[in-house]
Structures are given as structure tokens and as C-alpha cells.
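Progress against Task 2.4 (sequence-to-structure conversion) is shown through the following example record, which the project officer requested during the mid-term review.
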Amino acid sequence: MTGPWRCSSRRRAGLALAAATLALVASGAPASAAPADATIVSEQRIDARLRELTIAAPALAAETKVRVLLPDGYRADDGRRYPVLYLLHGAGGNETDWTDDGAAARATAGRPVIVVMPDGGRAGWYTDWSNDGAGGPPAWERYHVRELIPLIDQRFRTVAARRGRAIAGLSMGGFGAFSYAARHPDLFTAAASYSGGVDLNAELFGAPIGLIAVDGSLSLAGFDGVTGATLFGDFVDENILWRAHNPVDLAANLGGLKLALYTGNGLPGGPFGPADGQDIIEVGAHQMNVNLDHRLNRLGLPHRWVDYGPGGHTWPYWRRDLRRTVPWLMKRFDHPRPVPRQVEFTAVEPSYEAYGWRVRLRRPNAEFSTLSDARRRGFELTGSGPAVVRTPSRYRPGALYLARIRRAGNGPNGGMGRRAARMRRIEATSSGRLRIPVRLAATNRFDEGSPAAAGGPVHSGTVRVAFSRLRGGR
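C-alpha cells generated for the chain above:
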């Protein structure tokens, strides 16, 4: 789901580009299965463990840097592969933060893990920038997900699969860690956030944090002239584009991942300060993390919740958070969990993929769509417009299958009328996939939640599809 897709009221230069930039890595396949367009320009050895790579990244239209911490003994054992922790910095930072200020080398000493610390821009916010609707570089999400991960898997001896890949970050990087994990759950087995900005629609002092940040007053933006509209789009008219990346809105996608949230409350009295007064940034981060904690609880998704009370938005807390996270992550790497047997995935983009399931919708507007209860015997899809669902490679090539398609809720405001099931015969492809065209509700005229849509009908439909094999196959 990466790429400059900006389905906005500017009528929609990014829509045609969405299909070309939607691809995710299928469940169980290493990220290096995708071509790495980025290239390593130079590599510097800083010390026995630390390397700094300069990378030419097409998604950024510029060179960028990434630091890589190798485990002790990496060079001595040239046959061993290691899991990878992607560690993201906060606003105003860069690829040096976690080694210079975050004591990442000390936290991972003696641990069999590779730590990758990329640059994410002073105010990149781990997204493909809207640039006020114009699109174009920098495309930070595309770089990190589609270019950097395959490049790291090619250059180093990684466990190049979901079971061997985790992501964590602080502040802006905490948002990035959970946004990437929710948008690409088949790439990561675990995610952790330290004082992360994990709910951009959270309110502080009676106003949404994202709206406050448009003028740069809360460090969401404000660096080098970056505003919220630069990053995601207009907060009011295009709020659906903010929600498309917002961990609270995408929390259901995190099923099957090991999750951790660390936060203080911004009040004085913590072991590392503040000594007096409130740390307003941590106050805001605390509210965002409380919102995500509540959302995960409502969804029944287990997670580590560490609200350590008084404490500020500063490095001593994040160093402690990382030290506590590393053993927890290593247990996950040592005892990986299989991918979820039943997939649930929500996205705003008109095309998306998760765990080998692919959905393509034909509609002009930006709105949420959800693939749920997706498993070998069928799936459910909710949204509007005609769609095509392609399954993972789970079926006998050439075999004939019967798809029982039942529609419900196909009307304004999600009316729950039902129709008789329709039968469709589908032959599995040579790769063992089924391709099922379905029709949901009538398409909507405006982006979901936009002022233009206020008061008008909302079309939402649900299609339930069940499979059974009729005969044949190889």
C-alpha cells in the first residue's frame, strides 16, 4: 500500500498510480523476493559492530543514510542468519540517534540480532508525502518498506521473512513503527512504540492533535516548512488520508503481532524528570497511547502496556524502554508464531494486499474497506463499488471450485437487507489461486468523513463468499 496515492478533492492525480504501487510482500515470502531498486553507494565501518551505509533511494530522489549494528560474532560465523530489528528515530532526528543517544549498541550487546536504523527525515512522518496534493518525493514509506528492507536482506545475512523481522521507534518513530506494522502486518512479527504519536486524531486541550500540528506548534511538523498538509493532506477535508496511516484506525490489522506500548504522562516526578511543570509533548503522547491501548483492548488483541506515570519526552526514558524491549523481542524471534489463520485487514487505498490476499476496488473516492474472516474456506469484504479478490496460493491448480456469494447491507448507510446467494464456478490458477469478482454497494460521491459528504447517504455493502471444490485439479 505504498506510493503517492492521494485520493483527494484535488481530483485525483494519484488514483491511477495506486495500482502500480500497491504491492505488499505475500505471507511467508521474504521481503527480498521484491526487487531492490535502492543501491548502496558506500559503506563505512565505524567500529567492530557498527556500519553506516549511504544509499541511493529512488523513492526519495536522493541519497540517504542508514546505520546497521551487527551482532557479536557476525563475521566469525558466516553461515548463520539473524533476525532484524528496524529502529526508527523521532522528529528532528536522523539515523545516528539510536547509536549516539539511544545506547542501541549497549542494549543489544551479546544478542543475536541485526539492528537497522534508517533516516526517516526530520519531519518525514514515515509516509509518502502528499505535498499538498501534488505527490512525488519524498516517499518515506515506499523507501523503507519496498526498497530498504529488500536491500538489507540482500546485503546482510538476515532471516528474510516475517518471523525474523520486528520494528520499534520513539515519538514520530513510534508512529512509524505501528503505522508500518498495521499497513504491512505480513512483514513484521512484532512492533514496539516509545512515547509514540500513535493516534493523530487524539484530542489535546479540546482540539485534535493533528489539527494543532498543521501550524507546527506541536512538533508533528514545523521542521523545514513541513506542515500536516505536506505530509498527509488537509486535516479537515482529507482527514481520511490521515486515518489511512493512523494506528488507532488500523489497529485490527495488528492481530497476530507481538505489541508493546511505553509511555509516560508528562508530569514531574519521574526518575529522569521533568523536575517541575508538564512536558507537553509527552502529555500528548500519553493521550495517544491511552487511545490505542483502549482500542487494542476492545479488539481483544494482547499487548504489553507500560504506562510508567510521571516522566518526560526524553532520551533517558527511551533508552530504558529499548533495554526492556530487547529481551522481549528475542523471545519472539526464538519462538515465532505462524501467520493468522483468519485474516482481517482494513485499508483506505483502492488496492491492497495482506498475507497473500489481494483486493482491488474500482471507486473514485477514499474510504475504508475491510477484508475479514479471510481463510481457506472463504472471506467477507465490506466497502463500496465493484471489486476483485484474489486468494493466496492455497488451492489445487486447475481444480474447479464453487463460490457461494451472498450480499448483505448493500444500501445507503449500510442497510442490512439480504439477497439470495449467487453461485459462481471458478477454476484455480496454475499457482493455486482463486480470483473472485464481487459487487458491493453503489460507490459514494465523496471521501469518507469529508465535509462534502456530511449529511448525505453513505453506501456500504458486505459480500460473504464461501468456497467448495467441485472436481479436478493437478
